[in-house]
Amino acid sequence: MKVLDRGRQLSSIVQDKVLYHRSPKWLTSPQYAREFSAKWHKVYDRTPNIRPPVRHYGALTVDLKRKLDDEFPEAGVLKLNKALLYGKEGWIFSKEGYLLPDHSWYGYYVGEMQEVPRFPPRGKRLEGVCLSIASDFAVRGYGHFVIDCLSRLELFYKAGFKLTDVDHIFCPKPTPGNAQFLFDQLNIPLNQCIWADQNAALRADTLLAPTFPGTRRNYPKWATEFLQEVFLPSPPQPSRRLYVSRSGYSRNPENEAAVHRILMKYGFEIYDPTEHIESHRDFAEAAIVVGGSGSGLTGLAFCQPGTKVLELIPTDHVYPYYYTLCDAAGLEYGCLVCQSVHERGQDPWGPSSYNFNVNENEFESALAQLTGEDKST
Question: N or C, where is the chain less crowded by C-beta within 10 Å?
Fold first, then answer.
């Protein structure tokens, strides 16, 4: 992980071959606590971010490890006064004007944050104690909501806090379906919720701020352990074979009909998680999961250890989200790299909208290896 000197002005710095400007001054939470006598409740120490080799099925390969950070920073809860909660992303500024980036998806890559104010606004006063579990992209983003937001409660509870300790909870409003179902199970008082997508800037008298779980695209083991412990205290016996469909969204196989025919030969269900209120339990019942890169694979966080996973990775959309999520959950991860119909060039920003082609022979060979059944004849 690239860690810059404390409080350094990032007025002009090169990160990942891109020049950024006008970034605010910032401090990590432990640094801020030492500098300004705030309370830092450390829950997890800094740990190396070590991942196993990626198993590729097929001729094409990608370097998923290239976007891994070297380590996870300290994780915990920072308690501070008169802090600013800015925008739907929930960016946190101290009363002294420091951005606290370890609460954001961007982490120490501060220069990549778009529209971050160099001089934060005053904000509307929020009396009492506020807990923030807001995070970038979590407004109407299922995967970011479940993992980036809800798993922060692990840090909150492990730091010794309870929901009765707070007057307000700043978080994205869950979308209908599984996100709403999971949120309801947490027994969070709705009358205390302040929805992040409806507020531009709030100044909390006292803020309790759990840090981001891991680093962007890199999930720690404790996040999946928390989600399973809370939502699946008695996990089912895995036996199902799921193909996670992205019907109605971008990044689908161009030859989807052929892909479905092969899947049916090997006993897979064509599964659309948006149609199931308790999709987390369906993933927990899966012995094998196959699917294209996208938030539909968030349910891998609920799979049982040893579940086999085949991610279909488009060449125009190469990110280690589900590689690290599978490793965190103890799953057997593999990928089949598929040629996208268009390419955006080296290191594009954000998700690709392009479909991809699945090599049918390689796909069937991968399924035969995963299932132990050869039905190619």
Answer: C
Which residues, other chains included, contact 73 with Cβ-Cβ below 8 Å and sequence gap of 6+?
A: 1, 28, 46, 102, 107, 211, 215
DSSP 304: P
Strands (E), 116-232: 124-132, 168-171, 193-195, 201-210
Burial 3-37 (b: 16+ CB within 10 A, else e): ebeeeeebeebebeeeebeebbbbbbbbbbbeeee
Enter the pTM of the model: 0.92
Structure tokens belonging to residue 354 = 């392009």
> What is the tens place of the pLDDT at every residue in 245-295?
998 899 999 999 999 999 999 999 999 999 999 999 999 999 999 999 999
Q: Are strands 12-15 and 18-21 parallel, antiparallel or unpaired?
A: antiparallel
**In sequence order, what are the residues at sequence separation of 6 or more whose Cβ sits closer than 8 angstroms to the Cβ of residue 171?**
132, 133, 134, 149, 193, 194, 195, 196
The CA-atom distances, in angstroms, between 285 and each of 163, 184, 305, 355 are 31, 22, 11, 29
**Surface-to-core class of residue 165, CB atoms within 10 Å of its CB (0-12 exposed, 13-18 middle, 19+ buried):** exposed
Residues 253 and 246: their CA atoms lie apart, in Å, by: 9
Domain architecture of the chain: domains with CATH: 12-50+73-218 (no CATH), 240-371 (3.40.50.360)
Amino acid letter for position 150: L
The tokens describing 317, both together, are 């959309």
DSSP state of 15: E
H helix or E strand, kind and range, residue 261? helix 256-265
- For 144-188, write each residue's pLDDT tens digit: 999 999 999 999 999 999 999 999 999 999 999 999 999 999 999
Rounded to whole angstroms, the Cα distance separating 148 from 95 reads 25
* CA pair distance 290, 335, nearest whole angstrom: 9
